Amino acid sequence: MKSQSAEESRIAQLCVEHGLKMTGQRRVIARVLSDADDHPDVEELYRRASALDSRISVATVYRTVRLLEEKGILERRDFGGGRARYEATEGGRHHYHLIDVDNGKVIEFEDPEHEELMRRVAERLGFDFVSMRLELFGKKRPQSQKAAKPATRSSKKGSAE
Amino acid sequence: MKSQSAEESRIAQLCVEHGLKMTGQRRVIARVLSDADDHPDVEELYRRASALDSRISVATVYRTVRLLEEKGILERRDFGGGRARYEATEGGRHHYHLIDVDNGKVIEFEDPEHEELMRRVAERLGFDFVSMRLELFGKKRPQSQKAAKPATRSSKKGSAE
DNA sequence: CTATATGCAAAGATTTTGCGGCGAA
DNA sequence: TTCGCCGCAAAATCTTTGCATATAG
C-alpha cells in the first residue's frame, strides 16, 4: 500500500539501517511487507513474495520475519488460528485490533490516550514501556443487516485480514 | 483459587452448568485449572494433572482446554514462546499482563477504567464488547530503587506463569 | 575474501484426529 | 443404553535447522 516504485521499500531501508545484507529475496520480502496493509501470515507472505520472484523459499520467509521481528522492524500478532501474523512496526502512534468473533475479521482502531495510559502503568510497576499488544473481541451489534455467519473456528485458509 | 477440598472445583461446577460430562480426567483437569494462579501451558497442565491421576493423556488435556475455551470457561493467552497458555475466565474485573522483555517474566496488573474504555471503543465501532486481551511489554527500570515493586508474582523460565 | 544468506529437505515442536473401547447420565 | 469421552498413536500443522552453495559488502 505504499511506494510501488523501483526504489527501496521503507522496510528495505530499515534493513539497511540495521546493517542487514540486502539480497534479492530480502528485498522482495521487504517490499511485500511494506506494501501490505493487512496482517499476512508466513504462508501469505510467501505467496506474495513468490509472485514477485519465484526464487524464494518459505524457509527464507520464516528466517526473515524472525530477523525483522528481533530488530523491531516487524511485530508479530496472534489473532487466533494458530499462525503468527505480521505487520510493520509503526513509528509514532500505534493502532489496535478489534476482532469480530463471528467471522474473524479484523478492524483496526486507534486510541491516542491509550499508549500514554500504558506508559504510566508500566512506570508505576517499575518498567520502561517497550511495546504493547491490544486485541478487542466483539460481536457486531445487530442493527441493520446480515445475519452473522457461524463462528468458524478453523479457518485454515484465511490468509490475511 | 484454592479449594483443595473434596467438593467440585469451581471450574468443574462450570462444566456441569455447561452440560459437560464430568469424567474423572475432566474433574482432575478442572481442579488443576481452578487451583492455578498462573498461566500454565498444556504441557504443564498435563504434568500437574498427571501428578494427581496418572491415567490422563495429553490428548485429553488438549481436548479439554479447547472445549473449555469454546465454552468461555478458559481463556487462551499467547506470551510468545510458541505455546498457548491458559487461565480461567474471570467474572468481574479483568487483569492484564506486563511481560518483562528481558526474562519473559509475567506480571499481572489491573486497570479498572480500562475495560470501560474498551467497551466504549467497541460501541463506537458498532460492536458489543465480548472480551479483550492486553499485553504490555517493558524493560525493568534499573535506576530508581524506590520503584514500586510489582505486587504480583512472577515466573520461571520453562513451564508456566 | 568473509561473513551472511539461501534452498532444500529433514527434524522439531505443538496440536489435532481416527478408532476401538469405556463410562457418566 | 447411549452418546460423549478417553488413550494411543498416527497425522497434520507450523517453524526451525544442518549443510552445501551463493553472494553482498
TrEMBL record, chains A, B:
Q: Which InterPro entries match?
A: FUR, Fur_C, WH-like_DNA-bd_sf, WH_DNA-bd_sf
- Entry binding sites for Fe cation: H94, E115
Top-rank taxon, per record: Bacteria
- Return the SUPFAM superfamilies for the record: Winged helix' DNA-binding domain
Q: Which cofactor does it need?
A: Mn(2+); Fe(2+)
Could you tell me what the cofactor note in this record states? Answer: Binds 1 Mn(2+) or Fe(2+) ion per subunit.
Give the location in the cell: Cytoplasm
Q: Which UniProt keywords apply?
A: Cytoplasm, DNA-binding, Iron, Metal-binding, Repressor, Transcription, Transcription regulation, Zinc
Pfam families cross-referenced by the UniProt entry:
FUR (PF01475)
Where do the segments described as Disordered lie? 140-161
| UniProt GO cellular component terms | cytoplasm
Q: For this UniProt entry, what is the primary localization, expressed as one broad class?
A: cytoplasm
Q: A GO term (biological process) for this protein?
A: regulation of secondary metabolite biosynthetic process
One MF annotation (Gene Ontology) recorded for this entry: transcription cis-regulatory region binding
Assembly state and interactors?
Homodimer.
Family, per entry: Belongs to the Fur family.
Can you say what this protein is called?
Ferric uptake regulation protein
State the organism of origin: Acetobacter indonesiensis
Gene from which this protein is expressed: fur
